[in-house]
């Protein structure tokens, strides 16, 4: 499991998007109505991270810092871990050599991927 999967898990995405088994039908059951579609719950990323920030003994600014976001989730925030996450999310090679540029790119990429996976992330944070 990659670091981004751990981020999804810590924010409750795994529970919100657990797959519903599709029932199989026999030829005799062809006239049965198909099951109603099940809505996938939206994960309120801001509310979950803000709730964690309130409980944190450190003042962490997850809205601008990938290091703080990872710390808030109790995940490894070391440069090695961030480089692995950057590779996992296909960070442009030119950003990998400059940790500040990589961190800024990584923060935006993580928030965008959370939004892509059903997370409710305000546009101003995706920026």
Helix proportion: 40-55%
Which structural class do you get from the secondary structure elements? mainly alpha
Biggest sheet architecture: none
Beta-strand proportion: under 5%
Shape field: globular
Radius of gyration: 18 Å
Number of strands: 0
The secondary-structure element order is HHHHHHHH
Point out poorly predicted stretches.
16-24
How large is the count of helical segments?
Answer: 8
Distance between the termini: 28 Å
| Mean pLDDT across every amino acid position | 85
A few lines on this structure:
It is built from eight helices and no strands.
Would you kindly provide a written description of the structure presented here, covering whatever features stand out?
The protein is an all-alpha fold and 127 residues long. The protein has helices at residues 3-10, 13-16, 45-55, 66-72, 79-88, 93-96, 99-116, 123-126. Helix 5 (79-88) crosses helix 7.
List the helices and strands and how they pair.
Elements: H1 3-10, H2 13-16, H3 45-55, H4 66-72, H5 79-88, H6 93-96, H7 99-116, H8 123-126
Spell out the key features of this protein:
127 residues; 52% helix; single chain; mainly alpha; globular; 8 helices
């Amino acid at each position: 499991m990659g670091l981004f999967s751990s981020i999804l898990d810590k924010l409750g995405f795994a529970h919100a998007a657990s797959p519903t088994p599709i029932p199989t039908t026999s030829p005799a059951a062809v006239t049965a109505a198909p099951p109603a579609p099940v809505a996938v719950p939206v994960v309120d990323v801001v509310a979950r991270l803000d709730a964690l920030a309130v409980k944190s003994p450190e003042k962490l600014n997850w809205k601008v810092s990938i290091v703080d976001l990872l710390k808030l989730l109790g995940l490894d925030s070391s440069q090695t871990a961030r480089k692995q996450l950057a590779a996992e999310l296909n960070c442009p090679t030119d950003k990998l050599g400059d940790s500040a540029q990589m961190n800024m790119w990584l923060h935006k990429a993580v928030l965008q991927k959370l939004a892509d996976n059903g997370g409710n992330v305000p546009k101003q944070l995706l920026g």
